[in-house]
Amino acid sequence: MTSNPAAATDDHGPLISSRFVYGLTAAVVGLAALTSAISMSGRWYGEKLALAGHTTSTAANDLFIGQDHLRLPSNAIRFEEQRVTGVVERADLYLTWPDMQGYTDETRTLFNDVNQPGSLIFAEISQSTMSRDMSGRLEPIYQHIFDGAARPGPAGLERHVLKENSGYGEEVFFTAPRNGTTPYTVRCLMPRTPEMSTSADCQRDIHAGRDLVVLYRFSSQLLPQWQVIDSAVANYVNSKLVP
User: Fold this and answer.
1) pLDDT tens-place string over residues 42-91
2) What whole-number distance in Å separates Cα of residue 180 and Cα of residue 201?
3) What is the pLDDT of residue 52?
4) Are strands 90-96 and 120-127 parallel, antiparallel or unpaired?
């Protein structure tokens, strides 16, 4: 019986061809590269989720608001779209209390834990639209909506409840005299219990620079520190003004 040379060749050939080995190797390499890319992108996305819009960068941003020029670090600016150099309508800041610093790896829990409302100060800087700040509005406006006599508040403050038709709901005002200037004035929505306090129970606005208004918010837990908070906010903003 005559043998078939082609069959003999097939019987003695490799069980896996070189072409198959090369193809399999390429597929394995490709899969490994894809797995690595997914892992890296997943790690990047996880880090972005953990930061939740925060940044630890201290890179300077030159913001021009009205007639004023501010140079602010990125990690003190709340919103990513405001971390730019250019003309903006406002700058929203968040700062640790009492250090008045932006977001860092060491302070991340202060920014993410709602159970520590007294750890942050929030501030909004914009061009002023009123000739008087909150203290300047006390006599011509706010005093006319106070209801009855003032009651003692923390750290020398006086507490004022408001008339029902004032439009301020359940808010109250705290005031205190200051030597040589208008009285300190702040409005607060007081929590029913200390546990219900937030980082924005109280708000006050002050003027800064040539034509800026700084509206800042803080927890009612910090009311006993009203004097140092007011000075710290003013000093921080003034220190970021570029002549």
Assistant:
1) 344 334 444 558 999 999 999 999 999 999 999 999 999 999 999 999 99
2) 28
3) 57
4) antiparallel
3-state secondary structure the chain: CCCCHHHHHHHHCCCCCHHHHHHHHHHHHHHHHHHHHHHHHHHHHHHHHHHCCCCCCCCEEEEEECCEEEEEEHHHECCHHHCCCEECCEEEEEEECCCCCCCCCCCHHHHHCCCCHHHEEEEEEEECCCCCCCCCCCCCCHHHHECCCCEECHHHCEEECECHHHCCCCCEEEEECCCCCCCEEEEECCCCCHHHCCCCCEEEEEEECCCEEEEEEECHHHHHHHHHHHHHHHHHHHHCECC
Q: Please give, one letter per residue, the 3-state secondary structure of 123-186.
A: EEEEECCCCCCCCCCCCCCHHHHECCCCEECHHHCEEECECHHHCCCCCEEEEECCCCCCCEEE
> Residue type at 82?
Q
